[in-house]
Amino acid sequence: MSDVVEKTLTALPGLFESQTGAAKITNRLRQLIKSITELTSKHEEENLIKRELSAIKEQVSSPNTTMKQMREIMVRAMYCEMLGYDASFTYIHAIKLAQQGGVLEKRVGYLAVSLFLNEGHELLLLLVNTVLKDLQSTNLIEVCMALTVVAQVFPKDMIPAVLPLVEDKLSHPKEIIRRKAVLALYKFYLIAPNQVQHIHAKFCKALSDKDPGVMASSLHIYLQLIRESPDSYKDLTGSFVTILKQVLGGKLPVDFNYHSVPAPWLQIQLLRILSLLGKEDQSTSELMYEVLDESLRRAEMNHNITYAILYECVKAVYTIHPKAELLEKAARCIGNFVLSPKINLKYLGLKALTYVVQHDAKLALQHQMTIIECLDHSDFTIKRETLELLFRITNAQNVTVIVEKMLDFLCYVPIKTLTFAPDNSWFIQTMNDVFSIGGDLLQQDVPNNFLRLLAEGKPEEDDQLRLYAVESYLTVLKGHTSHLPQCFLQVMSWVLGEYAHLQESVDRREVIRLLTQLLDQRSVSSETRVWILSALTKIPEGQTDLILDLAESLSSSQDTVLRQQAQELRHLSQDSQLREWVLVENSCAVDSSLSFLDGFVSEALAAGAAPYKPPHQRQEELSLNLEPYSFSLPVSLSSCSITDRQSPTLLSVSSGLSGNSAELSTLILEGVKRVWGKDGYLPQKEATAPPVDEPSAAVQPASQQEAAERIEPRPEPSTQNQDKQQLASSLFVGLGVGSSVSLLGKSEAPPPRFRKKPRPHESSSSSGTSKRSSDSSSHSSRNTTDSFLYGSFPEEEPATSISTFDHTPKSTTANGLSQNKDTKEDRHANTSQILGGDMVIVRPSTIQDKHPPSVSSDLTALLPADLKDLPHSDVISLTSDPSLSLSSCRLFRDEALLLVIFISNCTETVIKDVAVQLTCEELKVCTGNVMDCLEARSTSVCHYALLMDDPHTNVSLTGTVSYQTQPGHTNTLPFSGTLSTADFIRPLVVTTEEYGKLWLSLSHDVKQNLKLLTDAGDPLRTTLNALKDALQLHVVDIIGSEGIVACRLLSGAPCLLHCRVNGAALAMWLRSPHPALPDFILYHCQRALAHH
Amino acid sequence: MQFMLLFSRQGKLRLQKWYVPLSDKEKKKITRELVQTVLARKPKMCSFLEWRDLKIVYKRYASLYFCCAIEDQDNELITLEIIHRYVELLDKYFGSVCELDIIFNFEKAYFILDEFLLGGEAQETSKKNVLKAIEQADLLQENFSSQSPHNCLSTP
Lengths: 1092, 156
Description:
The complex is a heterodimer of chains A (1092) and B (156).
Chain A: H1 3-10, H2 12-18, H3 22-25, H4 27-38, H5 42-61, H6 67-82, H7 91-100, H8 103-116, H9 128-135, H10 140-152, H11 159-168, H12 175-191, H13 200-207, H14 212-228, H15 237-248, E1 257-258, E2 261-262, H16 264-278, H17 282-298, H18 304-319, H19 324-339, H20 343-356, H21 363-366, H22 368-375, H23 380-392, H24 399-410, H25 412-420, H26 424-438, H27 445-456, H28 459-478, H29 486-499, H30 508-520, H31 526-538, H32 544-554, H33 560-574, H34 576-582, H35 598-606, H36 615-618, H37 649-653, H38 670-676, H39 701-709, H40 718-731, H41 760-766, H42 768-784, H43 817-820, H44 824-829, E3 876-880, E4 884-892, E5 897-905, E6 911-920, E7 925-934, E8 939-946, E9 954-966, E10 969-980, E11 985-987, H45 992-1001, E12 1004-1011, H46 1019-1031, E13 1034-1039, E14 1042-1049, E15 1054-1062, E16 1065-1072, H47 1077-1091
Antiparallel strand pairs in A: 1-2, 3-4, 4-5, 5-8, 6-7, 6-9, 9-10, 11-14, 12-16, 13-14, 14-15, 15-16
Helix pairs in contact in A: 4-6, 5-6, 6-7, 6-8, 7-8, 8-10, 9-10, 9-11, 10-12, 11-12, 12-14, 13-14, 14-16, 15-16, 15-17, 16-17, 16-18, 17-18, 17-19, 18-19, 18-20, 19-20, 20-23, 22-23, 22-40, 23-24, 25-27, 26-28, 28-29, 29-31, 30-31, 31-33, 32-33, 39-41, 46-47
Chain B: E1 3-8, E2 13-18, H1 24-39, E3 48-51, E4 54-61, E5 64-70, H2 76-94, H3 99-104, H4 106-116, E6 117-118, E7 121-122, H5 127-145
Antiparallel strand pairs in B: 1-2, 1-5, 3-4, 4-5, 6-7
């Protein structure tokens, strides 16, 4: 139970005393709910409900139970049913309650009936008479209740009995009765259309009802009728158009407004009807052009509801007979959807595009970059819709690229099916299809995950799945196999090798024969042969003759690996003792807690090894730097610096100024202007670096316009951008007039140099309308329901990458293959796989040499005067090319980390339009800096303030600098670097008492033994000083063998460290209000001590 | 609309309304799967998801998830607004509604829903009219049990 509930429960008595009468009756319900909240386990709940239900049973069958008590019992029964328990014995009593009770009881009785019983339930027949009676009641409430229940659950064959009465209600003086009657008839029409055919005239009357509510209800019926036969209702087009005009003109009572939009539900209903009527009918369509135009025009307010109407309107425009002017407007609307930063609207935009490209494929062209981005979207729903869209624009030229994208997508299928697979056979069958169709285009983790799923299952539960797999594969192998993709063959041979023995009825010789047959096929790759051979190794002995034949034939193979395997195979099949020893039959007990390693672990820890961290804490620490020449800022960490480039797509999503990232962290721009502004600091070579009057003036008009057009600026490294453009051109080929014409819409893909973020004021003016109105709309909605529901919006969760099944290999069987399948590198390197043993050859991963840093220490002299006194790191070179070289230096300010970038012109000519753009994924900051020109042999300085709200082990920075050496010729130079949390840690100066108080107030703690530096005098002092130097900690006090140290993350969360000498180790205890901070600080402490 | 579910962040069902005939077993299965799927989604993700052959539209209000299943040709955005209007109705009726109001007075929440949606279609979208209908039925209740008026209705 939620805390809120628990807390509020204590306040309950007061709450209920204030409520009256009706509340008292449901006292028992309250007790029930209250006792459920106090329970701790599902089991206790079951017992409690069981008791409750038997109490209810007793009460309902007692003759003394009054109707009033019955009502209360029924509410409890409904509650129990909602919790998922069976209270079917109360159903009949619900009907009785509706039958015999007063209005009060009837209401609950009818509700219970509508919740308990399905349309087809036999008990409903008992309700018919009650309904008939209530329909004729003089009490309006009773009539309403009867109509409500009729419109929800009513047996199909009893419709004729109530139909005349319901029809009569269409002319009832009360509009609420007429409305409900119309909806009841609608329901009747849905379940038994032929029974209401004769009352069409009455529907027509409902349509012209003076009450808008009744009229709106009748549209449900009309929509249904027109959907079935549009031609019979063409004559009504005029009426619908008139109604829509009236609605748009605000002729309806204000009650029907929803957030000041007139009757949106009614509008949408009418638009749907009109689109059905106007479809493929020019003359009818002409009647509605005007009103559709008006509808498009009116729906300009920026609220969800107007978007809902717009969407329906766009659909209508594209469904009816086309009119160029309207199509153009509608296409613009789609643009607003697609480019919207709001994900819901983006989705609708994609959906609208999907619908529209069937009529006009060229529309997709305008939005191709957005589409490309959506393809990589982290939200499955968006991704799916994008693929749907791509599917619609497939043509002869782009078919291969699109199909490839779809197959990429297939790799999500298995993951999804794991949770939803209805049965084993379906699952295996689907996977067979995936493998044989997707084949070798599938990402490697698809077969890996699949095999893991099979391997990790419990023997009893999943044997069936395995059996089914074995059976199905044998069938596949008996058929034509030469066309099967390699990865499918590998999967099959592994499964057969592991599990063929489960299937008693299968002849092992048959399995061996089938597998051997595969070996003879030319199309089978040598890698697959290895898989097949290892499968053969695993098939239990007894078939020595076949195996020996095979080994014999392979012993002369050209392939050394195969020869070796054949040799092993022969030995194993001849020496059963060896075989038993090597291939442990089935399930060896796996100690999943790995307790046998405890001794080793404690030894290693004592020796100063880094403690194990679960993957979620580890973040990127363990990934290797695979990028050549990438640069790592903290020199001390360079040996294992991390530049995680695995998910470059994340970059494209980060949009610093699109509103929602404001709370994360900010990159302060103030410094930029000071350097380049009129009064700003001028570097030493004054003459060579003229100040630029206004930074924004450097932005060319075109780029400003673009910034304005782009609702969501997407800063990204240019290389990535090029990739995307390339992808775009291959995806959208053939859609344009001439496919070779530039495929990129003008506003879609500006050259990287223009990818400058609009400054805050620019962005507010460019997207001002949307911002302002969304503000106002959210404001207005707040007014109506402000107090509780909006009180706590879902808390923002830190963006975490989606966890995949990667990298948790578990070998359940004693052979190398189960490991091989998880070790991608092996496969890539095509290293031979040693069979039978537990060995896997792991290639040492080569770390690329770093670009040699050409450190020019004198650069620090260029630092602005006000920054010169700050502690700073060494200047390190970021990147360089013949004309430009970039260096950077970190300055530690209390509240931020300043990153200073020195841009030096190495040529003898002026370099123009130098634009630096910096992106940082974790900090979600990005900004641009443009200067007009950089004189020959001069250096300019710009600096960025970086803030870190949530600690990350390492933060990778990427950026580009673009410049022009000759007019019109833009060069781009990418650079990257890494920052560590250590850069963001600042000493926290507190007294011992303050420390004590703070210590008690902090909740998250971590304890760990660290290495103690013993090389000089006092080990504790030496160690703490080393830490202090490396991490800018503040040593508060040292008393005897204990020391207390404090620091904080910039000016944010503090972290207190308590250190105690414990033998040869330093026992460190960290506390912080931030859950992750201690882990990170601990990590850096370990590193600092290890490097000491 | 095919059905509407209300459930808490802990996955507890608070309200369920089915507009299509399904067996109890089926309902339970759907509920279980959907609650799991929706709770697993991150806050920044879009409010729609395709599920079986249906579209699920959901929105979170404080600790409660409101979740509707619609057909593919239906409009997702208007469904979001249906959810919102229902929340507004609850809010007005209970006077700044919270999850507890819905737990302890779930039958009232059903009455309001029935007055707003009928047979899966919007019946009455005017807030005033819906509450008027509920009020009348409630008043009747008061007369019958001769008790003082329900204080929740007194404040707009």
